[in-house]
Amino acid sequence: MTPEPYLMLEDRTDPNSAEFAEFAEGVPTPLAREVDTPDFPFYALPKPIGAFVHALAESTQTAPGLAGGAALAALSAAAGGFYQVQVRPGYSEPVHLFIAVIAGSGERKSSVMKAATAPVREVERDLYQELAPGLLEQATQRDIAERYAEKAKRDAGNASDPVKRDELMSAAISAAGQAEAMKILAPPRIIGDDVTVEALDSLMAEQGGRFAILSSEGGLFTELSGRYSPNTDITNVLMAHAGDPIRVDRKGRQSEFVEDPALTVGIMIQPPILAEALNNRAFVGSGLMARFMYSWPPSMVGRRSVDPEPVSEHIAQGYRNTLYSLAYDARKSGVTTTLTLSPEADKARLVYAEEVERELGPGGSLAHMQAWASKVVGAAVRMAGLLHAATDSNSTTISGNAMDAGIILAKYFTAHATRVFDGLSDGAATHALARRVVSLIRRKELDWFSLRDLIGAAPTWLPTREVAQPVVELLVDLGYLFEIEPERKPGPGRPPAKKYRVHHSVFDADPPQQIKRIKQNPNSADSAELAEPPTTPYDDVPRCPTHRTIIGTTGRCVECITENAAIKISNQERAA
Question: What 3-state DSSP class applies to 97?
Answer without folding.
Answer: coil
